[in-house]
Amino acid sequence: MTFATAEVSAHKKAIKPRDRSHDIADDLKGDWLDNDPFLTTFFNTLSVTFPVGEKFFIDSVRHYRSDITDPKLLDDIRGFCGQEGFHRREHQRYNNALSHARGYDLDKLENSMTRRLTWAQKRMPPLTNLAVTVAIEHFTAVLAERLLSEDSLINSASPAMRELWRWHAAEEMEHKAVAFDVFKQMGGTDKSRRRAMRRTTFFLTLELTKGVCYMLKKDGNLFNLSIWRQGLKKLFGKQGFFAHTWQPYKEFYADDFHPWQQDSSHLLTEWEASTTG
């Protein structure tokens, strides 16, 4: 797909914030994903990273709003901020309910990432922070495609949790090019974008590993090798959740990359047809 075609594809749908709430407190008391403690822990850890991360994304994109003159991109920025705001709210509720149900120390879980992103906002140039946002938005877009796929692991979740994760995934996919387009308009370079992705890959992997280990330890499962073996196979095995994600991840490093070169709009159409909201 050429860049021009990708841009057309990116503008097929308006970015529409959907104000949804999810009754998931009872689900969070147990292993809500495929009855598997490792998978449940992995996605619960992802949720913990979202509220502080989404505030960072909103701030990074909004910083340049007054510099943007393209009315379509301004509309996209408003949609992006609205969607991320609702995601932040819902995952904060999720995390509060999770911590109450399982006795996790939420401040401890959030502290490292909060400190790191607060430091970045104070010490790093705004365009560098936007590059980090672009990188993480690519991660979430790749994750979203797996969540919305017909054979997705999330289909083994309890109904309320499945609905929440698929709603979040659909909106992440819908706005996946916004931060990138702002970054390019503000003069962001391929070199800085790639550098941000390398650093982000390292730190995000570190945060997720720490969170998973903390939760498994609190649940008494940290040294249960069977739980680790089965969970890692379901995530990273040949037929696992992250199968076939390496190639779309690597495409980010190409000079001519644009998020909508990975055209997943059919998944959005299918999701919209399946939801009554």
Structure explained in plain terms:
With 277 residues, the protein is mainly alpha-helical. It has one domain. It is built from eleven helices and no strands. Helix 2 packs antiparallel against helix 3 and helix 2 packs antiparallel against helix 5. The longest helix is centred in the N-terminal third of the chain and has 32 residues. It is globular and about 50 Å long. The two termini are 32 Å apart.
Could you list some keywords that capture this structure?
mainly alpha; 68% helix; 0% strand
Radius of gyration: 18 Å
Secondary structure: number of strands: 0
Question: Counting H and I runs of at least 4 residues, what is the number of helices?
Answer: 11
Structural category is: mainly alpha
Helix percentage: 55-70%
Name the shape in a single word.
globular
H-E order: HHHHHHHHHHH
Largest sheet: none
* Rounded average pLDDT: 93
Distance between the termini: 32 Å
Low-pLDDT stretches: 1-6
Roughly what fraction of the amino acids lie in strands?
Answer: under 5%
How many domains, as an integer?
1
Summarize the topology:
Layout: H1 3-10, H2 37-62, H3 71-102, H4 106-123, H5 126-148, H6 159-174, H7 178-185, H8 190-218, H9 225-236, H10 246-251, H11 265-274
Helix pairs in contact: 2-3, 2-4, 2-5, 2-8, 3-7, 5-6, 5-7, 5-8, 6-11
